[in-house]
Amino acid sequence: MLRFPFQPDKGKTTFPVKARPTSPALTSSGQNSTCGIYPSLLRYLLFCILFFITTASSFTGHAARAQTRLSEEKTTRLQNHHSELPDTLDAVALPDTLNITALRDTLSAVLRDTLPTALEETQPLPRQVPLKQHLLGIRGGYAFNTVHFNPDRKQKNVPSWINASLLYTYYHHLWGNLPYFGVQTGFTYTQQAYDTPELKRTYEVLRVPLTSQFHIDMWKTRLLVNLGCFAGYRMSATDYTEEQPQGIPVTFDCNHIYADYGFQGGLGFALVLKPFEFQIEANYLYSLSMIENPALYSNEYYTYGYPGQLLITFGIFIHLHK
Questions:
Q1: Nearest to 217 by CA among 168, 283, 269
Q2: What are the backbone angles phi and psi of residue 307, rounded to the nearest 5°?
Q3: To the nearest 10°, the Cα dihedral for 274, 280, 285, 291?
Q4: CB-count burial class (<10 Å; 0-12, 13-18, 19+) for 165
């Protein structure tokens, strides 16, 4: 039993402490005996290194001998084959030494003959040429004309066959990537009209459309989507009443608005038989310009009227470039 190196105070209880067993790794001199393990470990590592070097050398030697043996067998087969050639080839003798110059010339000739063909076969496909199509044509059709009045004047639609257009269409790749874009413009001679219980009035209108015509091509057909705007000029007007069924011209004054503008949209279908193209379309045009002065009929109650037109047309176009 061990005691603490100091004496406890008198009158205090002391507890016995068991001595820790002495480690067998400690010698009488107090040094650790594991120092003797290091020489053995070093000898073991040295043995492993030597064994690895010896094994690698052995494998290398075996591989070299195998390669030499294969070369000798190949040379023997070539010599036997050469000795078995027919008499007509006896004049052709294999050179004892390799002619580097002749080999280089042969390889150069082979590369000169085969490399261009190989490069042509491996060249990437040429970039697709952007779509550019120019079309010029005429178009005509049937229209349902009306004017949206507020307050309502019990107006009715007025059908009309007077619709003729001379149009130019340009199809191209938008930003070089979208092959579905086109723009269309030209001149259109048409009518605007409304029919109320008191009066039927028609306007002769010259219009210039500017339309984005998107198209999806399928074989020899196109699906058309139109979205755009227009500007026009109301040239004249005619009134039809029960007293004047043949019509009387309207004198334009400050109560009549000449300028016309608005937006349009529609769908169409085209049959492409180059150099011709046949198109059927249905478009709706809504004017943002009032057709008359709101105070024309009353200074107390204004009447606002905006023309609208449903236009069904058939067009014939010709491709200007193949």
A1: 269
A2: -70, 150
A3: 100
A4: buried
Q: Which of 229, 218, 225, 139 is nearest to 182 (CA)?
A: 225
Residues in the chain: 322
CB-neighbour burial class of residue 112 (10 A; exposed 0-12, middle 13-18, buried 19+): exposed
Report, as an integer, the average pLDDT of 228-241.
Answer: 95
* Distance in angstroms (rounded) separating the CA atoms of residues 265 and 212: 9
Q: Which residue, chain included where needed, has tokens 């594991």?
A: 34
Residues 1/17, Cβ–Cβ less than 8 Å: yes
Task: Give me the residue label for tokens 């492409």.
Answer: 272
How confident is residue 277, by pLDDT bands cut at 50, 70 and 90?
very high
Q: Nearest-CA neighbor of 232 among 207, 257, 254? A: 207
Kindly give the pairing relationship between strand 248-249 and strand 259-273. unpaired
In sequence order, the 6+-apart residues with CB closer than 8 A to the CB of 313 are: 139, 140, 141, 142, 163, 165, 279, 280, 281, 282, 283
- Residues 270, 276, 279: CA angle, nearest 5 degrees: 25
232: tokens are 């026009």
pTM: 0.59
DSSP 38-107: HHHHHHHHHHHHHHHHHHHHHHHHHHHHHHHHHHHHHHHHHHHHHHTS-GGGTT----SS--HHHHHHHH
pLDDT over 90 for what percent of the chain? 47
